[in-house]
UniProtKB/TrEMBL annotation:
The lineage of its organism: Eukaryota, Metazoa, Spiralia, Lophotrochozoa, Mollusca. InterPro entries: F-box-like_dom_sf, F-box_dom. SMART domains: FBOX. This is F-box domain-containing protein. PROSITE patterns: FBOX. It comes from the Eukaryota. Residues 97-143 form the F-box domain. Pfam families: F-box-like. It comes from Batillaria attramentaria.
């Protein structure tokens, strides 16, 4: 088995996922996976109309080997988080770790800079991390500098402060010149989406 030590988060976990269960349940749960065990915690949320029923929080701890065969825990995780989460945990146990999303942000930005715009859009739809990076000003500033040869002026930086690098990147050059001229004259510059 591969060493997972370099890939642990600040809490010493490979997976540290907290969420609310899928509808219609409103239960709150946490999945915490270390290099040796899977910990599932669940807090059952009951309507205030049933005050006599206050279930205690639940915690299940399984080693990786026990988790492989614990159908009861699999069905509980499927109920609150879905089949994909169980498959994700099983893949980690089998040695298939998602290394890409665990890389530092600056490395991920360098990787995304090598992609075309359509691929960046598709990668941004895969998970929350890539969605955040796909919207980050750092990425779009670097893309703007790569694809636009005009110098970065003070007016452009003022427009970036208002709109962000993403919107400035997708503004056509004629529209951008007009907006920078308006900003230079003290008028309000607006960006229309195409």
């Amino acid at each position: 088995m591969a060493s997972y030590t370099p890939w642990l988060n600040e809490h010493g976990a490979l997976v540290d996922y907290t969420d609310t269960a899928r509808a219609p349940a409103k239960d709150f749960f946490q999945l915490f996976m270390t290099p040796s065990e899977v910990i599932y915690r669940m807090w059952k949320i009951v309507p205030p109309t049933r005050p006599e029923n206050h279930p205690a929080p639940l915690e299940i701890r399984d080693t990786w080997e026990e988790f492989k065969h614990d159908e009861r825990l699999h069905s509980e995780i499927q109920r609150v988080a879905g089949d994909r989460t169980v498959h994700y945990l099983m893949n980690i146990i089998e040695g298939h770790l998602d290394y890409l999303s665990r890389l530092p942000h600056d490395v991920l930005i360098k990787i995304m800079l090598m992609l075309d715009l359509e691929s960046i859009a598709h990668l941004s739809m895969t998970c929350r991390l890539f969605r955040e990076i796909g919207k980050s000003n750092d990425l779009w500033e670097k893309l703007y500098k790569i694809h636009n040869k005009q110098p970065i002026t003070q007016e452009l930086l003022m427009l970036v402060d208002q709109k962000g690098w993403h919107d400035v990147f997708f503004t056509n050059k004629l529209q951008l010149q007009m907006q920078m001229r308006r900003l230079g004259q003290g008028d309000y510059a607006f960006i229309t989406q195409q």
